[in-house]
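quick one
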Amino acid sequence: MLATVDALLPLSLLEAVRDVDTPEGVLEAEFVDELRNKRFGLSDTVYTQIKRYSEAVRKNQRTAQDEAVALARLIGRRPDAEAVLRAAGRYLAHEAYHTVPALTRTMVRVLPSFVARPMALRRVRRLAQRYLNANVRRVGTYVLLEVPRSVTLGVAPGSTGCTFYEATLRELMRLLVGATGAVEHTRCAGRGEGACEWRADWRSASV
Ligand SMILES: [Zn+2]
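structure w/ zinc ion:
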């Protein structure tokens, strides 16, 4: 069976490229035209692809994993790859978080932790499964995210590619349960350790 990812994943990569490449402040239209030629994120290609993936997200269609990997590789060649990948992770987490019903989001914030934590964990697990093809489990005060088939593995020097998942987990935890402690990359497929795994400490979280 062809490996697929939720269309939100490639969309998050492109949204991040566009966001990073968009100059800050108000600009003259002609200056933007000039930039368009130099900045990939402002190109018509990216615009068209963002529309395509947004449509796919709306229709619940999945994308071939290879297509997402190709996009990640393109980003990995940029000198600012890490910044873009982290922005993409945050974008994905944000969009995923907003698929959680508002009432649930509020309950996780206001209920006592012995009720709220299991609820939050169930949500993280479901969102990670759907949007990252990842597994989530809890070990003591840690939440472990395991990604068997990373889209961003090895797309940039060292473990730079892995920062995408780290940023997603960090932001998802922040949104769900408030501030999170350290997020560590405890296992990496790039170091021959089978799968990539991250460990988030939520002892210090407000829930
Ligand atoms: Zn890794």
